[in-house]
Write a structure and sequence with these properties.
The protein is α/β, with parallel strands linked by helices. It is about 40% helix and about 20% strand. Bound molecules: 5'-O-[(R)-(carboxyoxy)(hydroxy)phosphoryl]adenosine (KG4) and zinc ion (ZN). Zinc ion binds next to α4.
């Protein structure tokens, strides 16, 4: 039985590799961040991102394997992000993983990056899990709700119609002169501000699984330009509004669907304020809610390796005859 999987992710600006045992036990996770390259541009420059992946991927994969204490002979399968992500960045990991799989003679499992973010809460988690899962991805590129009636296959319920929540946080952070990526810097500034100082809408697109953040962002820009409020208060009030909307969507989803466990993944769930609100939601709603450790909230290879193991057990494997569309959209949930 295949139980040691190696996972690779190069979907955006982090070169990542992890080794995982039996889908959940993380043996190593190595991430090479390109923050120093992109921060001076205030956002990810795709061409630089893919070149840096080419330079780093060999080292990252070798280091992850070394840290796991295992050898190639012990790796039984390779998971790799096929999409969605930046096309040039994705290609680096995808082609590298194909080469590894061919030379080692082990299966290759193409992984959807969004499903992997929703799987991340199960890394190093030892408890039982009640299905169906309600998943929420909160990242720099995506904000969506998904439903998983059976283990780790997620169907799309709704998604943002404009900005992702991380993107909105990053844009407002940039407006306030904070470095990229702005989410964590905005969080620090918000700690010094008063979150109830400025009013933002608390409900957006009611009775819908879809999100929208562009109105909120425009409101923040107008407030900033008015010069009437302290930046700390703007940061705190804006961040609070974004997090309230996320929790409000979960609330609507658990009202309308049968849910055993809620899982939240993606870079924004590294945010302490959001974690606190999710804990409160779980207590009040009496529903189990899991989110990953901070290091598994951000892009990482362990979530790819773990999910690849479970997909492999279901018979999912790359066929070599036909490539997969890298946009790799989640199928819509049809009741
Ligand atoms: O999942 P991720 O690492 O990459 C994508 O797939 O997008 O998410 C990156 C996003 C960025 O927008 C970043 O600002 C945000 O996650 N982020 C945070 C925090 N840490 C990362 N947002 C708020 N608070 C944080 N502590
Ligand atoms: Zn991501």
């Amino acid at each position: 039985m295949a139980s040691i999987f190696l996972g690779i992710d190069t979907s955006c600006d982090d070169t990542c590799c992890g080794v995982v045992k039996e889908g959940r036990k993380v043996l190593s996770s190595v991430v090479s961040s390109q923050e120093e390259i992109h921060s001076k541009f205030g956002g990810v420059v795709p061409e630089y991102a893919s070149r840096a992946h080419v330079e780093r991927i060999g080292w990252v994969v070798k280091t992850a394997l070394d840290k796991s204490g295992l050898s190639w002979e012990e790796v039984e399968g390779i998971g790799v992000t096929r999409g969605p992500g930046l096309p040039g960045s994705l290609l680096v990991g995808w082609e590298f993983a194909k080469g590894l799989s061919l030379s080692a003679g082990i299966p290759l499992i193409p992984i959807n990056h969004l499903e992997a973010h929703l799987f991340a809460p199960f890394l190093d988690f030892e408890g039982e899990v009640d299905f169906p899962l309600l998943g929420m991805v909160v990242s720099g590129g995506h904000t969506l709700l998904a439903y998983s009636p059976t283990p780790y296959d997620f169907y799309l319920l709704g998604q943002t119609r404009d900005d992702a929540c991380g993107e909105a946080l990053d844009k407002v952070a940039r407006l306030l002169g904070l470095p990229y990526p702005g989410g964590p810097h905005l969080e620090k500034l918000a700690e010094k501000g008063n979150a109830s100082r400025i009013d933002f809408p608390k409900k957006i697109l009611p009775q819908s699984y879809d999100f929208s953040f562009s109105g909120l962002k425009t409101h923040a820009v107008r407030i900033f330009q008015s010069g009437k409020y302290k930046v700390e208060d703007l940061a705190a009030s804006f961040q609070e509004a974004v997090m309230d909307i996320l929790v409000d969507k979960l609330d609507y989803a658990v009202e309308t669907l049968k849910v055993g466990t809620v899982v939240v993944g993606g870079g924004v769930v590294a945010n302490k304020r959001l974690r606190k609100k999710l804990d409160e939601f779980s207590r009040e709603r009496k529903i189990p809610l899991l989110y990953p450790k901070v290091s598994y909230s951000l892009d990482n290879g362990a979530m790819i390796a773990g999910l690849a193991y479970f997909k492999y057990l279901k018979g999912i494997e790359f066929s070599w005859r036909e490539d997969i569309d890298p946009s790799f959209n989640l199928e819509r949930w049809e009741r």
